[in-house]
Design brief:
Elements lengths: L22 H12 L3 E3 L5 H17 L7 H17 L22 H16 L15 H16 L2 E3 L3
Antiparallel strand pairs: 1-2
Length: about 160
Amino acid sequence: MTDKQSVDVTKVTGRRELRYETFDELLADAEQQAGAETVELGNWSKGQIFRHLAMAIDTMIDGPPFKLWAPVRWLLAFFLKKRMMARTLDPGFKLPKSASAFLPPETSPEEGVALLRKAIERIKATDDRAMHGGLGYLTKEEWDAFQLRHCEMHMSFIVPKSD
């Protein structure tokens, strides 16, 4: 979290509308935002956002630090999987305590984008995907779509600074 007071991200307006088809599009946007004058509408700096996304992408290969109980994963997959692949995710999801490693420390935009670049190079170099902690086993295409929707949500909080 940055120095500002905690923001209820479910009520934030003015976010960017984004749609990434590839990880290259995500990286191009992150690199552009890293060097631009921006305002972060949520609780994290853009460096923290980039770092969080890098960690999440690495989890696609390494596996999650948490797994929901199998029946819960099945229910989530059955009722929400298609929606989560198609639409940008809604903000405000509270990570379980076992996933606290995904809460990024303060990170400079340069360091965050370097970590994101490394994670994207890594994910593009393999078709291997680990089990998703909430949705269970996903195909490569499903995992990629989910992660791009996740990235859109976080990146939408970085907006150009108006004069």
